Amino acid sequence: MENLKTNIKTKYINKIDLIIRIKIIKRNMPLSAEEKRERKNQSNKKYRDANKEKCREYKKKWKVANKEKVKEQKKIIDERYYQKNKEKLKIKQKEYNETNKEKVKEYQKEYSKSDVGKKIKAFSSWKKQGIKFDNQEEVEFYYENYIKSTNCNWCDKEYEKSINRHLDHHHLCGRPRAIICFGCNKYDLVPCVVCKI
């Protein structure tokens, strides 16, 4: 009986000894990149938990100092989220529009009266008409001139209403020619510089 007890005790001690040796070997072994990352994350988490207020202040200061970086990061994150959840977001937007019809209608009315809304409306109208631009700067250039224009570029007649103002374009090449009145636009008087017609 005594012999059995010592035998069990020896086995137990040998097992504990083996566990300790394994731990020592593991401690001395180089860590993999994943294990290092995990340890660093745990260490950072402990620090953040212990210094919440300090971390919050640091984040605020960093965001103020790096506004452009924050905007770029937010755009990237938003774009990724949108691409992953496109269908869900469309369904959600459709449901919102159906439940808040009056609110949406009011918002659209206000938006179409704003400068940005007018600009987008003009761009989409020109696109539907088949007017072609080389780049965004050209679109902006023509829009600025279109808004500032008070007289026809061809006959110099003053516009009675802003509705009488038209961005004329050549129907073959689609290039804009001038900002003219309804009469000049109707009779297609302005020659095209690109096509020379």
Strand order of the largest sheet: 1-2
| Strand proportion | 5-15%
Indicate the mean pLDDT: 84
Enumerate how many helices there are, as a single number: 9
Secondary-structure element order, as H and E? HHHHHHHHEEH
Largest sheet geometry? 2 strands, antiparallel
Silhouette: elongated
**What class, by secondary structure content?**
mainly alpha
Which residues sit in consecutive blocks of at least 5 with pLDDT less than 50? none
Count of strand segments: 2
Spatial gap, N to C terminus:
117 Å
Q: Please bin the fraction of helical residues.
A: 55-70%
How large, in whole angstroms, is the Cα Rg?
A: 36 Å
Account of the 3D structure:
This protein has 197 residues and is mainly alpha-helical. The protein has helices at residues 2-28, 33-50, 52-65, 67-84, 86-99, 101-113, 115-129, 136-148, 182-186; strands at 165-169, 176-181. The protein has a two-stranded antiparallel sheet. A hairpin with a 6-residue loop joins β1 (165-169) and β2 (176-181).
Write the layout of secondary structure elements.
Layout: H1 2-28, H2 33-50, H3 52-65, H4 67-84, H5 86-99, H6 101-113, H7 115-129, H8 136-148, E1 165-169, E2 176-181, H9 182-186
Antiparallel strand pairs: 1-2
Report a brief summary of the structure.
With 197 residues, the chain is mainly α. The chain has helices at 2-28, 33-50, 52-65, 67-84, 86-99, 101-113, 115-129, 136-148, 182-186, and strands at residues 165-169, 176-181.
